[in-house]
Amino acid sequence: MAFLGKTKRAVQQFPSPEELYLSGTLPRTTAAVDSLWLHQGDVIRAYAEDHQDTPDLALELPTGTGKTLPGLLIGEWVRRKALGPVIYATPTKQLARQVAATAEREGIPVAVPDRKRQALGSGG
After folding, report:
1. Which residues contact 91 (CB under 8 A, 6 or more apart)?
2. Which pLDDT band, with edges at 50, 70 and 90, does 6 fall under?
3. 39 close to 66: Cβ distance less than 8 angstroms
4. Which of 56, 20, 54 is nearest to 36 (CA)?
5. Of 25, 69, 74, 92, which residue is the least packed, with the fewest Cβ within 10 Å?
6. How confident is the model at residue 116 (pLDDT cuts 50, 70, 90)?
7. Residues 32-75: pLDDT tens digits?
8. Phi and psi angles of residue 103, each rounded to the nearest 5 degrees, phi first
9. How high is the pLDDT of residue 112?
């Protein structure tokens, strides 16, 4: 799944992915979650403090503990900083569609290719 948006370097107005989330600027739907869980905020803060220069990032948390939203917020924040392309990799198409649905609910623009050769970012 690819994050959509301009690729030109832009002035990042939020010092961290958490501030982006808390700012209320994402066009979140009424189905969006009310707030981050404490450990999700911890993961996002750890990224902002220690891993902004990490070129490839994987979030490791037990199943069902909320990796999707922190991963999406970090990806969207990096995309807005125009530090390079952002890809959210999943092992299955079903999980990619599930993550894309979460992104849409939370106001984060993404695209899921529906064919092996479809160009990322061309819709989907």
Report:
1. none
2. low
3. yes
4. 20
5. 92
6. low
7. 999 999 999 999 999 999 888 887 888 887 888 889 999 999 99
8. -60, -45
9. 87
For the record, the structure tokens of 6 come out as: 């301009």
The DSSP code sequence of the chain is: -EE-S--S------SSHHHHHHTT-S---TTS-SS--HHHHHHHHHHHHH-TT-SS------TTS--HHHHHHHHHHHHHHT-S--B---SSHHHHHHHHHHHHHHT--EE--SSTTPPTTS--
pLDDT in tens, 11-30: 567 888 999 999 988 999 99
Say if residues 78 and 84 touch (Cβ distance below 8 Å).
Answer: yes
Token look-up 């979140």 returns 28
- Angstrom distance (rounded) from CA 83 to CA 73: 15
Whole-angstrom distance, CA of residue 33 vs CA of residue 68 = 12
d(CA 41, CA 73): 10
